[in-house]
């Protein structure tokens, strides 16, 4: 496999520019839980000043001890010392230091508790926002692979990157601690601070560089990572197990997985090794600077400029400061690096659908009066230079049952997608009762069109929920669900299930029962009957049904669609012939129209296809 060619690396400006998303992140965190956000910030604030206090009390203790050793001993045991009052101050200091240490531990634990709760709330909240936003997007925005990559990165951002939040909060706390320690150091030896910053600068630049490299690697690996997830899914899920076994595809999948994974591993390893090597070198530089400063402090203590207490305070502060500044600088670059991932999340939130309701929408006519007219409609799918349908002209009169026939790829499903406004025509227009489809309220339009596609979803929920999904606000309305099930003949299947309507379907979850293809289809058709649809569309509704079921289902469909407009797509002429009118599609155009008898008599395309199928039964 060839190594990927990365576009030029993102500039520092771009990386720092990504930090502009931090306010949006904080807004999201705040919305996830105001109380926990305030709690976390307050705890961090309290924790930030403790280190300098502990160090300073330590210095006072040492100075006091050194002072005491220079005075004459009161003699005797501990009780004499206590009575003389010479231990009062140091004793008080020890108790104070103990109290501070206990408080620091307490606040530390409380803070990680609050942070972990906040992270989970944030992750859940952002996931919900992600799903809500995804629901507003056009179908086309899901289908393009670029969008799927972006969605994938946004998803990972939501679930995998809550550490960013803890990191930012930790950084804020560390900044305050640094300020408090620096204030102490400043009073004694300001040059120490300059020394530390100089020593850490190379490490900072190195980190920024490697973070950007890591991000690029991840960014350009998104398609491969989705491939890996997909292969993992193929190789280890119930839906695919049957075919994978029969065709013995496992070793093929493992091989493919390995070749992708090994390639990614090699890239990651190369980066990790370089990062570790440079990191070690920079850390060594920083250590040299630290010991240089330490030597200077020791020298000035020996000369009597600093007390022993000062020595411990300074070396302690200096050590902490070095660690903190190192953490801060690296943390900053990591945050800038992670903010690049935030870019994925927020740029996904910025994607706007193009199929929307107009500002002043019409509501769906109830009942439909004249019907639907396609006027010279053409659609080219995004990223495709072929017309899926073109110069499509047809009329669907209100109240009639129309069947669409045509060979694979003729454009039948495309016509339905256009009608449900899953796509808007590239050219021409679709009129509903004389008005352009785009003038109607989108949600209202979709509410009044009941469609079951040939690749309908088999929800691994209960049977009742599978049907209720057709009208989600009625999902608890058992009598409505039962009625829909009776209409589609799904009731007989459900009666046989051990837990009836509460029976989980599919094999994915515990106690699930799988159904046959035809049984699933009846459940899906019931879903369409849940709606008060003015237009009912069934795409290959009877493909998986046996002959008797097909006949019964269709008879019911006819009865139930009385007064409604219905479209039926089928390759089975036994179904098609029962429609009022049949439209024959070829290469995205209507080439013939009429009743079964008329079309057979005219001896055209339909007659030919019908004859082909009929001869198969003779
Ligand atoms: N999402 C898509 N992106 C690009 N091209 C598509 C897409 N969906 C369908 N097409 C193309 O549009 C044409 C019409 O497809 P459509 O699904 O409408 O055919 P159909 O008549 O329903 O076929 P079938 O009988 O196989 O279901 C085909 O050439 C197909 O390759």
Automatic annotation (TrEMBL):
Topological relation to the membrane, as annotated: Multi-pass membrane protein
Gene Ontology molecular function, alphabetical: ATP binding
Ranges for domain ABC transporter: 372-612
InterPro entries: AAA+_ATPase, ABC1_TM_dom, ABC1_TM_sf, ABC_transporter-like_ATP-bd, ABC_transporter-like_CS, P-loop_NTPase, Type_1_exporter
Gene3D superfamilies in the cross-refs: ABC transporter type 1, transmembrane domain (1.20.1560.10), P-loop containing nucleotide triphosphate hydrolases (3.40.50.300)
Main location: membrane
Regions that span the bilayer: 185-206, 276-299
UniProt keyword Transmembrane present: yes
Keywords recorded for this protein, A-Z: ATP-binding, Membrane, Nucleotide-binding, Transmembrane, Transmembrane helix
Domain ABC transmembrane type-1 as annotated: residue spans: 38-337
UniProt KW Transmembrane keyword: yes
Places the protein is found: Cell membrane
PANTHER family membership: ATP-BINDING CASSETTE SUB-FAMILY B MEMBER 10, MITOCHONDRIAL, ATP-DEPENDENT PERMEASE MDL1, MITOCHONDRIAL
Family according to the record: Belongs to the ABC transporter superfamily.
Protein's recorded name: ABC transporter ATP-binding protein
Organism: Microvirga splendida
């Amino acid at each position: 496999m060839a190594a990927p060619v990365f576009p030029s690396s993102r500039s520092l400006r771009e990386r720092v520019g990504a930090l502009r998303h931090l306010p949006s992140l904080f807004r999201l965190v705040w919305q996830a839980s105001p109380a926990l956000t305030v709690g976390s910030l307050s705890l961090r604030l309290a924790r930030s000043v403790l280190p300098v206090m502990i160090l300073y009390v330590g210095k006072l203790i040492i100075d006091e001890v050194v002072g005491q050793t220079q005075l004459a001993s009161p003699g005797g045991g501990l009780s004499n010392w206590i009575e003389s009052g010479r231990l009062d101050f140091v004793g008080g200091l020890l108790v104070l230091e103990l109290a501070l240490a206990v408080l620091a531990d307490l606040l530390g634990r409380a803070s990680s508790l609050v942070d972990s709760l906040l992270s989970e709330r944030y992750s859940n909240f952002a996931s919900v926002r992600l799903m809500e936003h995804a629901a507003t997007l056009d179908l086309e925005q899901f289908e393009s692979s670029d969008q799927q990559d972006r969605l994938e990165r946004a998803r990972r951002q939501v679930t995998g990157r809550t550490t960013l939040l803890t990191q930012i909060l930790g950084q804020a706390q560390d900044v305050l601690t640094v300020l408090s320690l620096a204030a102490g150091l400043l009073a004694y030896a300001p040059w120490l601070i300059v020394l530390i910053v100089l020593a850490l600068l190379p490490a900072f630049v190195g980190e920024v560089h490697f973070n950007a490299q890591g991000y690029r690697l991840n960014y350009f690996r998104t398609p491969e990572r989705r491939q890996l997830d997909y292969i993992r899914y193929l190789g280890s899920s119930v839906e695919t197990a049957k075919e994978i076994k029969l065709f013995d595809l496992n070793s093929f999948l493992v091989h493919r997985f390995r070749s992708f994974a090994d390639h990614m591993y090699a890239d990651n390893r190369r980066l990790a090794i370089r990062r570790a090597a440079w990191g070690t070198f920079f850390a060594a530089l920083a250590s040299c600077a630290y010991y240089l400063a330490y030597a200077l402090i020791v020298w000035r203590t020996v000369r009597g400029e600093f007390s022993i207490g000062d020595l411990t305070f300074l070396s302690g502060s200096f050590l902490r400061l070095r660690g903190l500044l190192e953490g801060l600088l690296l943390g900053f670059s990591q945050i800038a690096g992670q903010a690049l991932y935030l870019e994925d999340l927020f740029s996904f939130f910025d994607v706007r659908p193009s199929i929307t309701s107009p500002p002043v929408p019409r509501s769906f006519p109830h009942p439909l009066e004249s019907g639907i007219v396609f006027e010279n409609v053409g659609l080219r799918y995004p990223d495709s230079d072929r017309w899926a349908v073109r110069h499509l002209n047809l009329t669907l009169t209100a109240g009639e049952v129309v069947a669409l026939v045509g060979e694979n790829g003729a454009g039948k499903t495309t016509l339905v997608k256009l009608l449900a406004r899953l796509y808007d025509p590239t050219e021409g227009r679709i009129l509903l009762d004389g008005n352009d489809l785009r003038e109607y309220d989108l949600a209202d339009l979709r509410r009044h069109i009941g469609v079951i596609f040939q690749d309908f979803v088999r929800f691994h929920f209960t049977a009742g929920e599978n049907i209720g999904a057709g009208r989600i606000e009625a999902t608890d309305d058992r009598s409505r669900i039962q009625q829909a099930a009776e209409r589609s003949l799904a009731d007989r299947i459900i009666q046989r299930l051990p837990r009836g309507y509460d029976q989980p379907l599919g094999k994915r979850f515990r106690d699930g029962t799988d159904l046959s293809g035809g049984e699933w289809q009846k459940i899906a058709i019931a879903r369409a009957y849940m709606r008060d649809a003015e237009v009912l569309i069934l795409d290959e509704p009877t493909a998986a049904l046996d002959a008797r079921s097909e006949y019964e289902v269709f008879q019911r469909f006819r009865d139930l669609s009385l007064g409604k407009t219905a479209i039926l797509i089928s390759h089975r002429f036994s179904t098609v012939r029962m429609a009022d009118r049949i439209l024959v599609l070829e290469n995205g155009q209507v080439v013939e129209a009429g009743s079964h008898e008329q079309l057979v008599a005219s001896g055209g395309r339909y007659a030919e296809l019908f004859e082909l199928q009929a001869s198969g039964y003779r």
